[in-house]
From TrEMBL:
It comes from Sulfitobacter noctilucicola. InterPro entries: Flavin_Rdtase-like_dom, Split_barrel_FMN-bd. Transmembrane segments: none annotated. It comes from the Bacteria. This is Flavin reductase (DIM6/NTAB) family NADH-FMN oxidoreductase RutF. GO terms for molecular function: FMN binding; oxidoreductase activity, acting on the CH-NH group of donors, NAD or NADP as acceptor. SUPFAM superfamilies: FMN-binding split barrel (SSF50475). Residues 18-173 form the Flavin reductase like domain. It holds the Pfam family Flavin_Reduct.
């Protein structure tokens, strides 16, 4: 099968999300200029550089009570900071609950029953028991093709790691089983890992 996205795929559901998988989930916490906290999961998320460490996430779509985007991007525009919280399999239901479309002033931490903690170097809340949280200073917001598609880039300026996730000096993902997004309504999680040495190692 071949199709041009501009012509449509003639399938019951868009296959693009199922092709680009698995995708890590960035559970993005922000705070607006009035001090109201927000938490939302984004599966268009990844690390993009080592030195300095940088991440990005993309927001696609718009809310009626926010000007041209969603709460996360609107808050980051106001404050210039955000936190990326790693999602583990154990909190999949809370993560899903925080994805609900709610009024701008709603605190998704409270809505989903998630304990929050203060970040250390930015004015933002984080998920208290997350395996890891990355405090970020926004470096740029880039509008990409489409009416409400924004890529948000940030430099990681503070890193939290849960102590039980550090094994023999390494951050061990098998201790918490990171949740990943597949296509449609499908998810998966990491239970096993293996190593491959690069040819020039």
């Amino acid at each position: 099968m071949f199709y041009r996205p501009e012509d449509g795929h003639n399938l019951p559901h868009n296959p693009f999300n199922a092709i680009v998988t698995p995708r890590p989930i960035g559970w993005i916490s922000t705070r607006d200029s009035a001090g109201r906290d927000n938490l939302a999961p984004y599966s268009f998320f990844n690390g993009v550089a080592y030195t300095p460490p940088q991440v990005m996430f993309a927001s696609t779509g718009v809310k009626d009570d926010v000007d041209g985007t969603k709460d996360s991007v609107a808050n980051i525009r106001e404050t210039g900071v955000f936190c990326v919280n790693v999602v583990e399999y154990a909190v999949r239901d809370a993560m899903n609950a925080s994805s609900a479309t709610l009024p701008h002033e709603t605190d998704e931490f409270a809505h989903a029953g998630i304990e929050k903690a203060a970040c250390d170097v930015i004015d933002c809340a984080r998920v208290a028991n997350a395996p890891a949280s990355l405090e970020c200073r926004m470096t740029q917001i880039v509008q990409i093709e489409g009416p409400a598609n924004f890529a948000v880039f940030g430099e990681v300026i503070g890193v939290h790691m849960r102590d039980d996730c550090i094994v023999d000096g390494r951050f061990d993902v098998t201790t918490y089983q990171p949740l990943s997004r597949l296509g449609y309504r499908d998810y998966t999680f990491v239970r096993e890992v293996f190593e491959l040495a690069r040819p020039d190692d």
